[in-house]
Each structure stands twice: as structure tokens, then as C-alpha cells.
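Could you show me some protein's one-letter sequence and the numbers that encode its backbone in two labelled lines?

___
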Amino acid sequence: MMRDRLLELCKMNGVSGFEDAVREKIRTWAAPYADEIREDPAGNLMVYKKGTRGGRTVMVAAHMDEVGFLIKGINEDGTLRFVNVGRIINQILPAMRVVVGERAIPGVISMIPPHMGKRGQVYSPGELAIDIGAKDRAAAEKLTYPGDFAAFAGEPQWYGEDVLKAKALDDRLGCAVMLELMQEELPCDTWFVFTVQEEIGSGAVTAARRIHPDIGLVLECTSAGDLPYAEGALRTCAYGGGAVIPSADGGAVYDPALVRLARSAADAAGIPWQEKTSIAGITDAKPMAEAGGAAVLAISAPGRYIHSPISSVKWTDAEAVLGAAKAFLMAL
């Protein structure tokens, strides 16, 4: 079930600020397991599951949004000016396939041939354009508008030894894990929060202010650098090493007691886990700690090539995230 839901979620487009379709799909799936469902003005979807024991309130968070692009204008020749939404390295932009808007208009980011440009030059979004095949501005205006979004194109694909390649694994994987967890009978009252705009800041802050959780758990897809050219700490975490249960991220130091509990619970359940050897990225843990005053923790899957159309996760690591998160919540 988690596989099927994750594949469907990764096919959907939900660039930061445009999470509507993803949110409605998740709402449909979550409804049978929820004691209450709320949506705040920011667009966070908050699903409440009453615990068997009560006591402390837990907020489990995963973000619905993905990195992508925002259309900033339409040129006379029908091509589109754009900017990046979220952290996308400019090196990967030329010749990238995209889809524009809710109608998923196919397009491609322009490429300056090596015969005409400087070999190895990195071009910024302002030096490129999205080509949707429109003959002029008037034709393009029938298809899109300034303020519309564009997303990575491409279908999810399995390859190698049960590895999934897809856009938006960061963090539709966390969303799929939460949909599994809410089917469990958990001891604590738990809010499963599917957050918005994490890639450009965080929508989690408004949800945390409403919920005021005692404990915050973030489920993420985090950067794995275990490739031939990366050595030592630069590898950060590795495929096949299990769930990542780190001590900190770029925005928060996790509660040491929760880190110890999560690791010991994983050990007791026979779930493999690993630490991160370097600090890479910021999660929803920071706004949860600041806005809600929660003690925070993250459990993540190591993902290669994140923030690209070909982010990849080994399925055994995805299963380890589910197992480690369940063991942690049961141990509270």
C-alpha cells in the first residue's frame, strides 16, 4: 500500500505554494483513519488520531511541497521567464523537461549549444527560458500566466535492486509513511501534519502554533552522498544503511533524550539506522521547536540526487523509516 501511494504522490505536482491537489488526495486517504481533520489558512493539513493512553501531544510532520519553478513573465516569442522555487542547482537546468501549470503543459528549459556558448558555463534562470512550443506571446497566454508554476517532468521508475527514482521523493516519502502510521493504535494523542512551503521556509510554523505539541517528529528524505567521488564525512549517509536518526540538522539540535529513545527503540525492533556524518539541510523541526516549544526529532530516508527529477531511494531504507518511526511512537 505504501508503495502504491508513494508512486501516485510522486506523479502529482505540488510546487511550494501550489500543494492543493496533493493535499486533497492525502485528505481522501487519511479520512478513514482520522478522529478529526483540519486545514489551517496556510494550507497545512492536520489529521488527529486520539491515543490509547493520552498524555503528551505529538506532532508528526512531513511536507507536501516540492522544489520547482515560478513563471515570472512571457516573452514576445512565447517562451517563459522563470525563477527557481527552492534550492535547485543551476547546473541541471538546461534541457530539463518540465510541465507548466495545472494542465501540465509540456515544456523544456532552453539550452545554449556548446557550439555557441562557453563550455562548462553555468547559466542562471535569468539567462534561460521555458519553451512550451508557443509561436508567440498571445499563444502562450492561452496556456499559462505570470505567477503559474512549473514542475519537473518524468514518471516514477524502479531500477536496480529495488530503488525508486522519482521527483518529489523529498518529501512525498514522508507523507506516505505518515499515512501508514495513522493506521496504528498509538499511545499518545497524535497530529499528523502534512505541511506546505517547507522548501522555501516552512508552513509548519502556523500548524505548530495551533497544536502546541510536546514532541515533534519530522519524517524526511535527506541527502545521501555515498558516491565514488565523496569521501569521509561528505558522504553524510548511505543507501542501504537504514533510517537516518541524526542528532541535528542545519536549523535545530534535536532533543538528546528523544534521539536516544528513537535509536534504542529501533534497535529493539531490529530496525537498521544510521547517523549523519555532516549537517545538511533544514527541516520542519526548527519551526516546530520555535513556534510550538516542542522537543524535536527527525527520522529520514537517505536519498540520492534530491531536488532534481531523479531523486532516488532504496526501498529497504523507506521501510526502515516506517519501522523506526512506529517503534519510536510506540515507545513514548
Notes: The first helix runs from residue 2 to 11. The chain is about 25% helix and 25% strand. The chain has a mean pLDDT of 94.
